Amino acid sequence: MIKVLVVEDSVTVCKVLFHLFQQEAGIEVEFAKDFKTAKALMGKNDYFAALCDRCLPDAPNGEVIEWALAKGIPAIVLTARMDEDERTRLQGLGVVDYVLKENRFSYQYAVGLVKRLQRNGDYRVLVVDDSQVARKQVKDLLERHQFQVAEADSAEAAMIQLATGEFKLMITDYEMPVINGVELICKVREQVDRDELIIVGLSGREEVSARFIKYGANDFLRKPFFAEEFYCRINNLIQAQELNQKLWQRAHLDYLTGVANRRYLMTQLQDHWSQSVASGQPLCLAMLDVDMFKQVNDQHGHQAGDRVLQFLARELSQSLERFVVGRVGGEEFAVVMPGLNGEQAWRLIEAVRRKVTGQPLQLEALSLGVSFSAGICQGRGDDTIDTMLRRADEVMYQAKEAGRNLVLLEEESV
Ligand SMILES: Nc1nc2c(ncn2[C@@H]2O[C@H](COP(=O)(O)OP(=O)(O)OP(=O)(O)O)[C@@H](O)[C@H]2O)c(=O)[nH]1
Questions:
Q1: Which segments of 45-203 does DSSP mark as H helices, in order?
Q2: Taking the CA atoms of the chain, what radius of gyration do you get in angstroms?
Q3: Measured between alpha carbons, how far is residue 192 from residues 9, 28, 152, 372 in Å?
Q4: Residues of the chain with pLDDT > 90: what percent?
Q5: Which of 65, 90, 156, 162 is the most exposed place for a label (fewest CB within 10 A)?
Q6: Which residue blocks in 320-384 are alpha helix, DSSP H?
Q7: Does residue 414 register a pLDDT over 80?
Q8: What is the pLDDT of residues 182-224, one digit of tens each?
Q9: Nearest Cα residue to 399 out of 369, 361, 380, 371
Q10: Is the peptide bond before 224 cis (omega within 30 degrees of 0)?
Q11: Which is the closest atom of ligand 1 to the Cα of 291?
């Protein structure tokens, strides 16, 4: 939970912001109607950010903004008017942004900005430039928007840092000794695609801008650039990437449990099977079905049934981190286990069965015992993914017939 302070003397603006913040989980908002109250609150509370009215009865010239910044609180300015001089002055002070109090979209933008800053805190950015002064300028801008920033003074140093795979964004200059920014992008793109790492090129040379994009940058900025444009571009790129990730998740993951959906599991199974055939490494497939699941729904309701599915999916994902877990039907899950032979796969799934049956699921006052039956087969030379699925399914039904709460390995896979 983060705490945000709104310093604003207009009751209407406070009401609108209160309403908008209330819809956001994880943000607590406090209000101060004047500079004096704001100072007292900032003195005793830790604020993640402050939305500060530029003109208050007891602070008509943005004094509250400077006060918040001096306390290390990121400040977003609320203002009725803005001109070029004031914009430059505010940027110089180091504010996050300013919001013109025009309409409800302005306030939505302000609330969205707080959420953006909160998420930015999880993102690492690499700034690549041989000039320390230029690196510092970009780093300062990024830190103002809460990004975690690392620096590299050459393309070679950047490649080493990028190998950690921790970065969301790289901002690179063009002109650097030995390897320039465009060459760096070419090298990076051999390993990491546009969805995994956003790259922005910086250059004062017009002809370089297009080359940045052609060779794999997501965007570029001409130097010298305005801080406001810099932030708009970076935020847009990150929002687009977040949206892509959301779309990817919707297309590939099961909405209820968060594990792979049927289609994604099938493509993963196909890929792993092709690799297994090519490498000669074993591949096992397990099909799991919750026992007496209809009874759970009938006796305790559909919601309780959903909780059982979520519980099992969580247990499977946690215990089988290295493998692909998917929900392939109502109460049916599958696990793709490359590199394991039948015995090894059986031991692993059996360990999960013991763990699941050993800890009843607590649903408020209700304690629900959950168990599953599973069938495992190891891929053979003449298999397709369909024959593997059929064989694992058949063994799973044998486990059901044998009394449930049982993991069986296909005889031929022993
Ligand atoms: N809560 C919930 N139930 C689901 C979902 N999808 C399928 N089901 C239910 O899963 C149940 C499956 O029941 P059955 O196939 O008869 O199997 P079972 O009761 O688990 O019995 P055995 O498999 O023989 O142990 C049905 O009642 C479906 O309505 C879901 O997403 N949520």
A1: 63-70, 84-93, 104-120, 132-144, 155-162, 181-189
A2: 28
A3: 49, 38, 18, 40
A4: 93
A5: 156
A6: 342-358
A7: no
A8: 999 999 999 999 889 999 999 998 889 899 999 999 999 999 9
A9: 371
A10: yes
A11: 25
CATH classification code of 262-413: 3.30.70.270
Inter-axis angle of helices 293-300 and 302-319, nearest 10:
140
**Given ligand 1 and candidates 294, 312, 393, which is best to mutate, with the most ligand atoms within 8 Å of its CB?**
294
C-alpha to C-alpha distance for 382 and 199, rounded to whole angstroms? 45
Which of helix, strand or coil describes residue 9?
coil
**How many other β-carbons are positioned within 10 Å of the β-carbon of residue 21?**
19
Check if the beta carbon of residue 178 is closer than 8 Å to that of residue 157.
no
Atom 24 in ligand 1: which residue has the minimum CA distance? 292
Q: Which atom of ligand 1 is nearest to the CA of 256?
A: 31
Distance of alpha carbon 234 from alpha carbon 230, whole angstroms: 6
Mean pLDDT of 235-248: 95
- Give pLDDT tens digits for 363-390: 988 899 999 999 999 999 889 999 999 9
Residue with CA nearest ligand 1 atom 16: 294
Burial of 91 per CB tally in 10 Å (0-12, 13-18, 19+): middle
187: amino acid identity, one letter? K
Domain with CATH 3.40.50.2300 in the chain: 2-117, 121-251
331 is catalytic: yes
Q: Where in the chain is the domain with CATH 3.30.70.270?
A: 262-413
Q: Is the dihedral of CA 388, 394, 400, 403 positive or negative?
A: negative
Distances in whole angstroms, Cα of residue 356 to Cα of each of 63, 156, 326, 371:
59, 49, 17, 7
CA angle 265, 386, 309 (to 5 degrees): 40
Tell how strand 124-128 and strand 75-79 pair up: unpaired
State if residue 294 touches ligand 1 by the CB under 6 angstroms criterion.
Answer: yes
Helix (H) or strand (E) holding 76, with range, is strand 75-79
C-alpha 304/C-alpha 35 separation (Å) is: 51
CATH topology of domain 121-251: Rossmann fold (3.40.50)
Judge if ipTM > 0.85.
Answer: yes
Question: In angstroms, what is the span from residue 279 Cα to ligand 1's centroid?
Answer: 38
